[in-house]
Write a structure and sequence with these properties.
This protein is an alpha/beta fold. It is elongated, with a radius of gyration of 29 Å. The protein has a 3-stranded mixed β-sheet, with helices on one face. It has a 3-stranded mixed β-sheet with strand order 4-5-6, covered by helices on one side. It has helices at residues 2-13, 20-50, 53-79, 94-122, 131-158, 161-190, 195-222, 228-240, 274-292, 308-324, 358-372, and strands at 246-254, 260-269, 294-303, 329-336, 343-349, 377-383. The chain is 64% helix and 13% strand. The chain is built from 11 helices and 6 strands. It has 3 domains: 2-222, Up-down Bundle (Alpha-lytic protease prodomain-like), CATH 1.20.1510.10; 225-303, Cation efflux protein, cytoplasmic domain (Alpha-Beta Plaits, 2-Layer Sandwich); 307-388, 2-Layer Sandwich (Alpha-Beta Plaits). The mean pLDDT is 82. It comes from Enterococcus plantarum. Its main location: membrane. This is Cation transporter. Residues 30-222 form the Cation efflux protein transmembrane domain. Residues 228-302 form the Cation efflux protein cytoplasmic domain.
Length: 388
């Protein structure tokens, strides 16, 4: 309830903001900064009092979270800057860079306490456990649970992978603090010196989490395939445009969480004049921008719909391709029948996981065309990089 109230109140204040996404990101960074600083100071003090390396490791983990919150603030501030001459597609990808820095910091802290824990295992020491220490650890667990839920809600509202990662990190901290609490309780009750072992487990967990996050942000920076829901939404809209014959060669480029550009080939009747073709393409591009938030550029492919021979070849070739595999898609099918033996030219979209080489596919298709269509030379352009 408190989280919903906090988010709702902030959203109401930001109604006139031109960039609500950046405002929410900075807001989440400030909340994280304050709460993580409070946790660091409290755990650092009880770690010094008790002499527990696992509590100190947990405290330094919260310090890294504090720095992470600063990086989140900086990341959202820079990513919210408008496009300029040097960055014509905006600065949103900086959010991925700040997320990468957070991940590197988490991993570094994990390695530091891995070494400290090894030393504590070799040289075990008694720790002092008091009710106040246990209460502070329990409270820190509750704060981290609250933090994780808060980050998840904001991440969902603004579609931020950086805040999703931060929410996961907060949830990881819940488990590490529970381990510290168990360690302190066991030593307080039984006298068993397991502080170094628990610290080692926490350090390994921190390292593993950091490496996972690094992998995620490296993928973001390299360029991931768009999520299937976004692709399906584009397919649904393009399929609903009754005026066009079809579409293919969809490419999507993302320059941040909300900066998406795409290009697609639109098949139209070759009897259309340029004005009609231009108006249709304009309408498709405008609706993509308004409904999907995607900057679309369309390439026109004229299709012969009135020549019976062309239509026969088109239909039969589609059957031949489907007979080899439902995963293969043919388009831009053309007949060239002048100056020698007639040729069938077309593009073939081949998924990356498809078994067999392009040359093997070409031989199979040539044989099937000769058997089912006629004595034509087959010339194929293989496409491996398109989504549709």
């Amino acid at each position: 309830m408190m989280i919903n109230f906090l988010i709702g109140r902030f959203e109401k204040k930001q109604q006139k903001s031109s960039d609500i996404r950046t405002a929410f990101g900075i807001f989440a960074g400030i909340v994280g900064l304050l709460s993580n600083m409070l946790l660091f100071v409290s755990k650092f003090l009880i770690g010094l009092i008790s002499g527990s390396v696992s509590i100190m490791a947990d405290a330094m983990n919260n310090l890294s979270d504090t720095v992470s919150s600063v990086l989140t603030l900086v990341g959202f501030y820079i990513s919210g800057k408008p496009a300029d001459e040097e960055h014509p597609y905006g600065h949103e990808r900086f959010e991925y860079i700040s997320g990468m820095l957070v991940s590197l910091l988490i991993t570094f802290v994990g390695f530091q306490f891995f070494m400290t824990s090894i030393d504590r295992i070799k040289n075990p020491q008694s720790i002092t456990v008091t009710p106040v220490i246990l209460i502070i650890l329990v409270l820190s667990i509750l704060i981290k649970v609250w933090q994780s839920v808060f980050y998840q809600r904001v991440a969902k509202k603004i579609d931020s992978n950086t805040l999703v990662a931060t929410a996961k990190d907060s949830l990881n901290d819940v488990f590490t603090t529970i381990a510290v609490l168990v360690s302190a309780t066991v030593e307080g009750v039984t006298g068993l010196k397991i502080d170094g072992i628990v610290g080692l487990v926490i350090a390994c967990y921190i390292i593993f989490s950091g490496l996972q996050l690094i992998r995620e942000f490296v993928n973001e920076l390299m360029g991931l395939r768009p999520n299937q829901a976004a692709i399906d939404e584009m397919k649904l809209y393009l399929s609903s445009v009754s005026e066009i014959v079809g579409y293919h060669d969809l490419l999507i480029h993302q320059y941040g969480p909300s900066k998406m550009f795409a290009s697609v080939h639109i098949e139209i009747d070759d009897r259309w004049d340029l004005t009609k073709a231009h108006e249709t393409i304009d309408e498709i591009e405008n609706k993509f921008k308004k409904q999907l938030g995607v900057e679309l550029v369309c390439h026109i492919d004229p299709v012969n719909l009135h020549d019976q021979r062309q239509q026969f070849i088109h239909q039969e070739l589609k059957k031949v391709i489907k007979g080899i595999s439902d995963e293969l898609k043919g388009h831009d099918i053309r007949l060239v029948d002048h100056g020698g033996k007639p040729r069938i030219l077309f593009d073939l979209v081949v998924p990356n996981h498809f078994k067999g080489t392009d040359q093997e596919l070409k031989i199979r298709l040539q044989e099937q065309v000769y058997r089912n269509i006629g004595d034509y030379i087959v010339e194929i352009t293989f496409d491996h990089n398109y989504l549709l």
